[in-house]
Recover the amino acids of this structure.
């Protein structure tokens, strides 16, 4: 009898020690999550759009129910189809996700998924297993080592922290979050069938990026499998959705429309041109992007790719050809391009040696923006451009013009310096806008001149 009592006491002691150990692990992980939350909450990447952030927070509370008081929602100005939940109750939603959803119910399905990760303690359970290999610990520590306040630093901070928490989920946990999350979404009055549409729209974009058959996150099931599972779950919930709760399915879409071009520019800087073109094609199906704007954005994507390090001459020429084609299509479109498109097209044609087309585009820019901040600078460029030099046949198509002109590398150093100066003004303009200066003001012009001189 005494031996049995000793054995029982020893067993209880083991349980007690194990429970204490698990508790310490949880505390440590939550403390780390608190630090990450603080980093992202105060980083430049956090969106300043409090109305949109509050709207998403209200949606999360509606879905989370009793867990609402434990959840904090933050909106990050960052590209990518992504949202992630920390074990301390901090949820982060990226504007790249908002850009891609076509209804409130689609976003709700993602929110419901993340809420279940928190309520079912998925990250804590997975962390205990991963701790043996230091997988999660190593990934999480990256976020704490990222410093700086620039765009690149903020992007690295988000990707390292998001990647750490997303990798902490097993595929079983992902499936559980899908199933239980849709139930929460359904109970809150949202349409559970909307969940699979996100992945349907994202599939071709994923394939264009080279992630064929997989999402951006390694822990998530393959896209086809996930769509099938989401459709089956939604079908099982058919007829159980409350008809007393009304959901405005276009409210979020309307809110995002005001910032869609800004979010698209974020995406353009983070992906390859062909993937960006797929994203744009998806956008046109549910947004009000005009033909002219569509072609302008596509051209900008190829110009951006040409500026990246390590681009060889063949790829550079191809990027310029594609950009030239899209600018030409944008000019011919019924809506026309934004004014800046004509200026950018002129700069491209200067690089390609087609001074006649450059003069035409610069003239069109000034006709549309006679009081532009750089109007005097562009006017001087027009005076110096000689239409006779390097002038391809006027009957040539835009693509033929490009192939008949000299390679960008052969353009003289003087011409390259002129283009560089224009680029400096462009960069200075973006920085001044980011600092809060308003266009067509004296202070805006002074800001540009000062920054361009520094560059």
């Amino acid at each position: 009898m005494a031996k049995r009592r000793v054995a029982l006491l020893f067993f209880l002691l083991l349980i007690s020690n194990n429970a204490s150990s698990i508790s310490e692990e949880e505390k440590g992980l939550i403390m780390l999550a608190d630090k990450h939350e603080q980093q992202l909450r105060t980083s430049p990447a956090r969106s300043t759009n409090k109305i949109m952030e509050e709207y998403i927070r209200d949606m999360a509370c509606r879905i989370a129910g009793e867990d609402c008081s434990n959840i904090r929602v933050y909106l990050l100005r960052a590209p990518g189809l992504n949202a992630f939940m920390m074990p301390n109750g901090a949820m982060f939603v990226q504007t790249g996700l908002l850009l891609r959803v076509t209804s409130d119910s689609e976003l709700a399905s993602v929110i419901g998924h993340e809420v279940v990760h928190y309520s079912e303690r998925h990250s804590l359970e997975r962390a205990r297993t991963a701790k043996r290999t230091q997988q999660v610990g190593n990934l999480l520590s990256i976020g704490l080592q990222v410093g700086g306040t620039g765009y690149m630093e903020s992007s690295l901070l988000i990707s390292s922290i998001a990647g750490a928490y997303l990798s902490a989920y097993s595929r079983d946990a992902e499936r559980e979050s899908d199933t239980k999350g849709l139930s929460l979404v359904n109970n809150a009055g949202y349409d559970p069938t909307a969940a699979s549409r996100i992945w349907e729209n994202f599939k071709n974009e994923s394939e264009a990026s080279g992630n064929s058959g997989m999402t951006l996150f390694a822990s998530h099931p393959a896209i086809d499998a996930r769509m099938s599972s989401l459709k089956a779950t939604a079908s099982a919930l058919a007829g159980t959705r409350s008809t007393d709760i009304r959901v405005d399915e276009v409210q979020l879409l309307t809110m995002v429309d005001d910032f869609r071009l800004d979010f698209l520019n974020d995406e353009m800087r983070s992906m390859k041109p062909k993937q960006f073109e797929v994203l744009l094609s998806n956008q046109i199906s549910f947004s009000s992007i005009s033909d002219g704007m569509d072609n302008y954005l596509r051209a900008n994507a190829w110009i951006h790719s040409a500026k990246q390090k390590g681009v060889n001459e063949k790829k550079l020429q191809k990027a310029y050809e594609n950009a030239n084609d899209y600018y030409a299509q944008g000019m011919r479109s019924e809506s026309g391009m934004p004014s800046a498109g004509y200026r950018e097209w002129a700069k491209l044609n200067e690089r390609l040696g087609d001074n006649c087309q450059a003069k035409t585009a610069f003239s069109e820019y000034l006709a549309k923006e006679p009081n532009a901040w750089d109007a005097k600078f562009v006017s001087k460029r027009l005076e110096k451009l000689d239409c006779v030099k390097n002038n391809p046949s006027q009957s040539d198509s835009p693509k033929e013009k490009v192939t008949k002109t000299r390679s960008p590398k052969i353009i003289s150093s003087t011409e390259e310096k002129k283009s560089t100066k224009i680029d400096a003004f462009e960069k200075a303009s973006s920085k001044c806008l980011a600092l809060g200066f308003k266009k067509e003001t004296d202070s805006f012009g002074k800001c540009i001149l000062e920054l361009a001189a520094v560059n």
Summary: The chain is about 65% helix and 5% strand. The radius of gyration is 27 Å. The longest strand covers residues 72-76. Strands lie at 72-76, 83-85, 90-94.
